[in-house]
Give the backbone structure.
Amino acid sequence: MTDEDRSTEDKQSGSTLSVALAFAANLLVGLLKLVAGLLTGSSAMLSEAAHSAADCMTELLLFTALRRSGKRPDRVHPFGYGKERFFWAMIAAVSVFVVGATYSVFEGILTVIEQPRDPAEEQYAWVAYAVLGLSVVIEGTSWQQALRQVLREKRELGLPLVRYLRLSDDPTVKSVLYEDTAAIIGLVFALAGVALHQATGSSVWDGIASILIGLLLAFVAFVLGRTNKDLLIGRSAEPRVMRAVYEHLDAAPEVDAVVDLQSMLTGTDSVLLCARVDFVDDVSAADLERACVRLDEELHDRFPDLDQIFIQPVPRTDPATRAAVLERYGAVPDGRRPE
């Protein structure tokens, strides 16, 4: 097994562990919240139960993403099934989170309008507090696992945390981190709602807490949905990788100029690269073939995420290619316009 395969396998195992731990945590916490919500009649607790149910469905969809995205390429999908991870993560983000958000906001608005007075909520308030406290511990354990993996991967890439979260091509662990963060914040909202209801006797606070939980879920759905939309459409590789690829190609003795570079993420840790290169005029056809093979091998060795590499010889003066490059970028990756 190569170092690249071992690194990919370790990352896959880390993602699976994060998703499995999150699923177990959400299943246990969801049952506890449901019991507390039924005993107290608290809309915030019922919203939190819906939140956990949505999270459980999310983890099931992420398991599907991990399993199906690992299928080998075939004739129908010659570049593999890596984008299935983006698709299922999108379904999880949009469908499940939005359903949870809709229920929470509806339940909260209903509580604020009707302001039901249920003495059971005050009688069993201790149950809600106990469940919320235990939920923080359980959710915190899952959150720590996801955060550890994120911090490890961002250190390996040498990126700040915010930039890593924006550019990461692994939606599974990012989804778990976001949903666990939202779960902990939601628990704070629920705790405040129950406490204020108990202190004031008004269920309005309970309803407001439920609405805030719903809005939080909707925000997380929007952030994850936007990220996965970019990945599904076909986002380019990280800019610094593209600059490094450009510099490597430009430094080759057979290369006169790099005319165009295009890349697309075809899965997690999988990049498709297309390079249009103007080779020096005195290179023979045989030398050109050998140069392309050598450059392909060098790029694979230096950038393990480059899964497929296509190098196309073109003259830099070709008007159609030049117009296409300038229309797309205005400049080649290192900031210089093709001549």
Notes: DSSP finds eleven helices and three strands in the chain. The chain has two domains: 3-233, 239-328. Residues 3-40 form the longest helix (38 residues).
